[in-house]
Amino acid sequence: MKQYTIAILGATGAVGTQMLQCLDEQEIPVGELRLLASARSAGKTVEFRGATVTIQEACPEAFEGCDFVLGAADDAIAKELLPEAVKAGAVVVDNSHAFRMDPDVPLVVPEINGADVAWHKGIIANPNCATIIGLVPTWPLHQLAGVTRMVVSTYQAASGAGAPGMAELEAQMAALGRGEELPEPRAFAAQLVSNLIPQIGGFKEEGYTSEEMKLQNEGRKIMHLPELRVNCTCVRVPVLRSHSESITLEFERDITIEEALEALAAAPGVKLVDDREAENAHDRFPMPIDTSDQDLIWVGRVRRDISNPEPNRGITFWCCGDQIRKGAATNAVQILRLLIG
Ligand SMILES: NC(=O)c1ccc[n+]([C@@H]2O[C@H](COP(=O)([O-])OP(=O)(O)OC[C@H]3O[C@@H](n4cnc5c(N)ncnc54)[C@H](OP(=O)(O)O)[C@@H]3O)[C@@H](O)[C@H]2O)c1
Questions:
Q1: In Å, what is the CA distance from 234 to each residue of 40, 211, 285?
Q2: DSSP state of 275
Q3: Quick one: which of 170, 48, 117 has its CA closest to 336?
Q4: Which CATH superfamily is domain 4-127+328-340 in?
Q5: Catalytic status, residue 243
Q6: Over the stretch 59-114, which tens digit does the pLDDT of each residue have?
Q7: Which of 158, 217, 249, 333, by CA, is between 20 and 30 Å from 256?
Q8: Per residue in 223-281, pLDDT tens?
Q9: Is Transmembrane helix set as a keyword in this record (predicted)?
């Protein structure tokens, strides 16, 4: 079997570290692995499949001879370095926002538009994490009845802000537990422990944030629905890992609850957890504590939108998914799987 030379740019971060595990779990045939990060991490070592790999400082020359590069760094670093990887002949799957809305770059969730990888010109983008988590269960319902509008509230974990976000919440929880004064917030705009922060990203059109607009803009591109309308509110919550979302969908054709449940139960990448009678809350509906460190989007609380004047044109549900895995690393490695066949 052909073995590939694969680099991870941002290999020491929350997403990059998870990518290593996903490469192994998805049995990607890795010949040589190059782990790239900032000068701060150069020289540190990481274990992969029983071998010790030394982290290198990222630079254009590091991509020479690479077949694939997985991007797990921020937008500015992605913009600076990933075109160099393409010039060196590699195919890039990038997690940052840098290339997502470029018309020459496919934006791919394999369960939805895996076929789009075919028209890449060197870069394929991984969508925003909340977008992936919301769209994986929306897609099978769209296929049944044609979604026209989404109203979404997200409850996003601290680790969505990377390793520094996770460390900040852990430090605040520890200080609170010891009864000490909380450290100054740096990764977030305010204290996160015992709090919610209703702003993720900068403010853009009409008071919506950049994170909130991604769900509409990226959703349109992924689902090939240029007219899709999305109203989204994104909230940072004091959960370490795994995002949750409340989603109401409006459809152009009728859809019954029974049809919706059947479609969700059969949908790839989805696990239906929806049993109002269950004694244990963990079997009644999805919760982020149960969906951390696994790859499926769990869906529950599926019900009719009783505010929709058309009785069978609206469905409301709740979903949770690990945004470092399916919202980032798992999805990127699934794209790599599609590329290598
Ligand atoms: N966290 C999530 O849930 C999530 C989900 C979806 C998408 N994303 C996106 O994925 C990307 C990575 O996010 P993350 O959460 O993993 O961030 P992170 O934990 O902060 O990691 C950032 C990575 O970038 C590296 N880096 C920093 N400066 C660099 C430089 N000058 N040259 C090369 N590498 C450098 C860091 O290396 P050092 O350790 O050496 O500083 C680290 O490996 C971002 O674009 C983010 O928007 C994140």
A1: 32, 7, 21
A2: -
A3: 117
A4: NAD(P)-binding Rossmann-like Domain (3.40.50.720)
A5: yes
A6: 999 999 999 999 999 999 999 999 999 999 999 999 999 999 999 999 999 999 99
A7: 217
A8: 999 999 999 999 999 999 999 999 999 999 999 999 999 999 999 999 999 999 999 99
A9: no
Residue with tokens 């937008």: 75
Radius of gyration of the chain measured on its C-alpha atoms: 20
- Give the contacts of 275 (CB within 8 A, at least 6 positions apart): 283, 284
**Looking up tokens 């469905």, which residue turns up?**
315
| CB 75 within 8 Å of CB 95 | no
In this structure, the strands spanning 56-57 and 314-321 are: unpaired
Residue pair 234/188 in contact by the 8 Å Cβ criterion: no
Reference 232, options 201, 275, 189; nearest CA is 201
Percentage helix, strand, coil for the chain under 3-state DSSP, each rounded to 5? 40, 25, 40
Nearest to 336 by CA among 61, 139, 108, 127: 108
Q: Quick check: is 224 catalytic?
A: no
CA 16 to centroid of ligand 1, rounded, Å: 7
Q: How far is the CA of 162 from the centre of ligand 1 (A)?
A: 6
CATH superfamily of 131-323: Dihydrodipicolinate Reductase; domain 2 (3.30.360.10)
The phi and psi torsions of 104 (rounded to 5 degrees) equal -90, 0
Among 95, 169, 239, 291, which is best to mutate for testing ligand 1, by the most ligand atoms less than 8 A from CB? Answer: 95
Which positions make up the binding site for substrate? Answer: 156, 236
* Ranges of each domain in the chain: 4-127+328-340, 131-323
